[in-house]
Amino acid sequence: MVPRIRPIHGPALPPVAGLALVTGASSGIGAATAAALAGAGFEVLGTSRRGAAAPAPRGVRMIELDLADPGSIAAAAETVRERARGRGERGAAVLVANAGESQSGPLEELPRAAWERLLQVNVVGQLDLVARLLPGMRAAGRGRVVLVGSMLGSLPLAFRSSYVASKAALRGAGLALRGEVAPFGIGVSVVEPGSVATGIAARRTRYGGAWDSPYRGRLAAMLDRLDANEAAGVAPEAVAEAILAEIRARRPAAYRARGSRAALAIPLTRLGGTQFTLDLMDRVHGLR
């Protein structure tokens, strides 16, 4: 019999209100989260590489941010600080680090430049932005940081090595950061979506699988199943709801998964062990 373990959510933290920043807010989970925060009474800045030209959810002001460009990250952080000062506040109350890119391909056929870009955008750039906004949260004595990862960061899938690595790194950094900033009234949560119907399949960068690739058949099978799973996934609003719950919580959870039957999949794979998890992911994605 498996013992029931009561979840520990950490210390009680001050509630937050005021200015929120959501990266990657022009579509998908980011747009749904930005809209939810605006509806909850936050002033919301959303980011896109296209800046003000990008589609904006209702009540959201879009600003430019390219996570591949350190100068753009610094400029976006300064824009947030300026807006906070205009409100008479120390800084943003909330940061939802959602923006990112998706890749697929056999590790053997992934160019070094692909790895470098993905890790910069999905990990280094996001954490650079977090670091730049933390001083304002510390000075205010309250804040919430939500890092949006992927369930693939916990449940690795063949031919997604670069993406899996980036999301696992983001999760690890976020959970470590949680212990650093809790004494300052700042809560850090990692939210990992499973399959979400955001249309990301059409934007995923695909490498390898040429006609003479030894991986061609299995790669194609995985991508077909992956695309189908994402098309049938939960709505972005379901993930936004989970993110908003952690922002509102006095004791935000360290980790939360949403979608892909997370309530069953995560405990099952933890009980089954590593090879069980890898075999299960292969079967679910047409590789067994």
UniProtKB/TrEMBL annotation:
The keyword Oxidoreductase belongs to this UniProt entry's keyword annotation: yes
Coiled coil: none
Signal peptide segment: none
Keyword Ion transport: no
InterPro entries, A to Z: NAD(P)-bd_dom_sf, SDR_fam
Origin species: Corynebacterium sphenisci DSM 44792
Family from the record: Belongs to the short-chain dehydrogenases/reductases (SDR) family.
Gene3D superfamilies (UniProt xref): NAD(P)-binding Rossmann-like Domain (3.40.50.720)
MF annotations from Gene Ontology: oxidoreductase activity
Pfam families: adh_short (PF00106)
Protein name in the entry: Alcohol dehydrogenase
Keywords: Oxidoreductase
Origin: domain of life: Bacteria
GO cellular component annotations of the record: membrane
